Amino acid sequence: MRQTDKFPKKKTIHKVVVDRKLCIGAATCVVIAPRTFELDDEKIAIVLPKGENEDDDTLFMAAQSCPTQAILLYDEFGNKI
Ligand code: SF4
What we know:
The strands form 2 sheets. A two-stranded antiparallel ribbon has the order 1-4. Strands 2-3 form a two-stranded antiparallel ribbon. It has helices at residues 3-6, 28-32, 56-65, and strands at residues 15-18, 37-39, 45-47, 71-74. It is α+β, with helices and mostly antiparallel strands. It has one domain (6-74): Alpha-Beta Plaits, CATH 3.30.70.20. 23% of the residues lie in helices and 17% in strands. Iron/sulfur cluster binds at residues 18, 23-29, 37, 45, 66-68, 70-71.
């Protein structure tokens, strides 16, 4: 086994989605990644436009911290990460 096979390359986040039906407005994601998530008027998280968003590690952390797993991450092929 080659060394690179043992440690597969980490997937890159291409798209971030919040499932509005699952979001309870806990705002953990907003605290961890305020340049990517914001609460709207209904206190449900929305994803801000791409630009100054946090790096992938921070976005993974935000998704993992969501109490209802409402944050969905997709790679460049549209596969859920
Ligand atoms: S952490 Fe999850 S439940 Fe809380 S606001 Fe973000 S998406 Fe919604």
